[in-house]
């Protein structure tokens, strides 16, 4: 449904853009196109006039009285393609008396040309005319003595250059747009194939998620779709109904294969297809655990920038001595050494994170982050981030995916030792107190601000009031004094 | 069958606790910024103001990009219609 409407929308855009092109081209390029057209259409006229000029000597030799008139006619004919700039509003009366001359009968085509000319330029704006005509006219006037062939080639060259210049942008842009559209559909298909390959591998019957979760897919009922498509490169998979956790949301963020520009950008800055699992743990089935593991650099950055890691966890540099440890590439951040030691079990080392296994199975591993102090709506959450292999080798990440249910069970059952628990409890209380203090501070600040504002308001109002009160008092007093004085005056007057 | 499964110790599935998926509504402010649409608008304005046709063409291309990148039609249509203008 969605994709259909999107497709139709895109097609409509395409049509619109294509219909836009002829509109745009003359609009943005009005002058260039007109110049070309005029040059092309002027050529027969020039040739005509040229022919007449070459004819002229013959007529001149025959009659001596007419030559001055014929020369004037040729000039008027040359100027005549420009009726608007001509001081005479109607150029026709000028040639007609001359054409009555029997020797200039062949100039009938010129009169017809004049009519054609008027019609041709009827609809065009006036101010463009002289600009376009003058070069052609001057050129024709200057090159009257040249042979028509050389002139033709020159003009043809000009036209070709003009045309080339004006169309290159359009050609490039239209080809790019066409490539963009083709890439949109092929890239979309590629992304969908990758997501579907993942879903068929891990979420169909007898697969790992089917065995671990009772509800799969984003819809309701048994036939619900497994994947939710968000945009062209984000796919979501949801599963629920398992012990220890209330739900799992996997988000696949694929490369922007459908987008040619981001594809080109990715040639310069490569990126990966990523999948992120968010497991929402039940409140009662996760002890105080703050733990993260990633490549060393990333682990350092995470420890600094992720808030709960920064608050509760430190980088574990030296592994617990008697135990085997993860590959050197990986960095671990944890609240305590005990937690790190308990969460990195023999099985996990054997399967993925050990020295031997990591080369083979851990390629796609990006990071892992478990926390009971997650900021946001769900406080207890497990986050896994893996890179997706390509659609044909999707099975390469099966061991990584198997980590998800494994850790759900491990953390669901995990209980801290009493000493560690007291420590973490203290840390959490401290953090809670800090948070509470911060909250209170913020609240108090807000209150104080409000109070200060109110006080200011009151003071201002008081100042106004007091000024008014003083004025009123003054007025009253004056009135009283006036009253005191008045009766006497009245009395005196009355008497 | 499912109840039987949940009773057994080895099967981790618990259908009784299954919750259907609730799509979290995303506020328009939290959507990733549509750079392409923004660039398209800028190019479009430049193209109209200075009559550079290459800018108009770039605007169309970036408009196509933003169109292909949009997440849901409802929120983005407004911007696209803006860019098309």
Q: Would you kindly provide a written description of the structure presented here, covering whatever features stand out?
A:
- The complex is a heterodimer of chains A (495) and B (85).
- Chain A is α+β, with helices and mostly antiparallel strands and 495 residues long.
- Chain A folds into 2 domains: 2-146, no CATH class; 189-416, no CATH class.
- Helices cover 62% and strands 12% of the residues of chain A.
- Chain A has 16 helices and 10 strands.
- In chain A, a hairpin with a 3-residue loop joins strand 2 and strand 3.
- In chain A, helix 2 runs antiparallel to helix 3, helix 2 (30-62) packs across helix 6 and helix 2 (30-62) packs antiparallel against helix 7.
- Residues 9-114 and 128-144 of chain A have low confidence and may be disordered.
- The radius of gyration of chain B is 24 Å and the shape is rod-shaped.
- Chain B has 85 residues and is mainly α.
- Helices cover 60% and strands 0% of the residues of chain B.
- Chain B is built from 4 helices and no strands.
- Chain B has a domain at 34-85.
- Residues 1-8 of chain B have low confidence and may be disordered.
- Chains A and B meet through helix 1, helix 7, strand 3, strand 4 and helix 9 of A and helix 1, helix 3 and helix 4 of B.
How is the quaternary structure best described? Answer: heterodimer
Q: How many DSSP E strands of chain B?
A: 0
Q: Largest interface by residue count?
A: A-B, 53 and 38 residues
Q: What is the residue-mean pLDDT of chain B, rounded to a whole number?
A: 72
How can the largest sheet of chain A be summarized?
A: 10 strands, antiparallel
């Amino acid at each position: 449904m969605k994709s259909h409407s999107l497709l139709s929308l895109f097609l409509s855009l395409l049509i619109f853009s294509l219909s836009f092109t002829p509109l745009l081209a003359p609009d943005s390029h009005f002058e260039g196109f007109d110049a070309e057209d005029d040059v092309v259409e002027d050529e027969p006229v020039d040739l005509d006039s040229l022919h007449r000029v070459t004819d002229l000597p013959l007529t001149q030799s025959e009659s001596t009285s007419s030559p001055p008139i014929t020369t004037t006619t040729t000039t008027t004919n040359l100027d005549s393609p420009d009726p608007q700039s001509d001081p005479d509003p109607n150029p026709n009366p000028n040639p007609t008396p001359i054409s009555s001359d029997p020797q200039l009968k062949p100039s009938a085509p010129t009169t017809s040309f004049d009519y054609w000319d008027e019609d041709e330029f009827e609809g065009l704006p006036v101010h463009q005319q002289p600009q376009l005509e003058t070069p052609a006219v001057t050129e024709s006037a200057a090159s009257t003595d040249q042979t028509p062939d050389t002139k033709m080639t020159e003009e043809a060259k000009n036209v070709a250059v003009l045309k080339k210049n004006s169309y290159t942008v359009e050609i490039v842009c239209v080809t790019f747009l066409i490539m963009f559209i083709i890439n949109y559909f092929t890239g979309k298909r590629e992304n969908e194939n990758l997501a579907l390959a993942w879903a068929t591998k891990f979420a169909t019957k007898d697969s790992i998620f089917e065995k671990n979760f009772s509800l799969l897919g984003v819809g309701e009922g048994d036939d619900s779709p497994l994947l939710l498509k968000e945009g062209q490169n984000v796919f979501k998979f949801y599963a629920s109904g398992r012990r220890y956790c209330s739900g799992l949301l996997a988000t696949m963020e694929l490369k922007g294969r459908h987008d040619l520009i981001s594809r080109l950008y990715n040639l310069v800055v490569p990126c990966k297809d990523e999948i992120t699992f968010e497991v929402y743990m039940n409140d009662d089935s996760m002890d105080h655990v703050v733990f993260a593991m990633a490549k060393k650099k990333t682990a350092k950055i995470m420890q600094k920038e992720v808030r709960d890691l920064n608050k509760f966890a430190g980088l574990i540099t030296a592994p617990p001595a008697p135990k085997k440890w993860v590959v050197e590439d990986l960095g671990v951040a944890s609240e305590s050494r005990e937690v790190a030691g308990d969460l990195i079990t023999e099985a996990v080392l054997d399967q993925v994170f050990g020295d031997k296994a990591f080369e083979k199975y851990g390629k796609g591993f990006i990071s892992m982050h478990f926390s009971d102090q997650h900021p946001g709506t769900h406080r207890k959450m497990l986050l896994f981030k893996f890179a997706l292999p390509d659609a044909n080798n999707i099975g390469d990440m099966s061991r990584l995916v198997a980590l998800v249910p494994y850790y759900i069970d491990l953390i669901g059952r995990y209980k801290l030792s009493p000493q560690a628990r007291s420590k973490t409890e203290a840390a959490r209380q401290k953090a809670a107190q800090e948070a509470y203090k911060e909250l209170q501070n913020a609240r108090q600040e807000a209150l104080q601000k409000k109070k200060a504002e109110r006080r200011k308001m009151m003071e201002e109002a008081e100042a106004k009031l007091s000024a008014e009160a003083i004025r009123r008092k003054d007025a009253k007093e004056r009135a009283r004094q006036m009253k005191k004085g008045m009766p006497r005056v009245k009395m005196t007057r009355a008497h | 069958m499912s109840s039987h499964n949940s009773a057994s110790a080895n099967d981790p599935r618990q259908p009784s606790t299954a919750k259907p998926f609730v799509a979290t509504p995303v506020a328009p402010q939290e959507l990733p910024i549509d750079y392409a649409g923004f660039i398209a608008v800028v190019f479009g304005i430049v193209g109209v103001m200075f009559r550079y046709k290459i800018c108009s063409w770039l605007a169309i291309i970036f408009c196509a990009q933003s169109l292909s990148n949009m997440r849901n039609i409802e929120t983005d249509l407004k911007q696209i219609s803006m860019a098309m203008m």
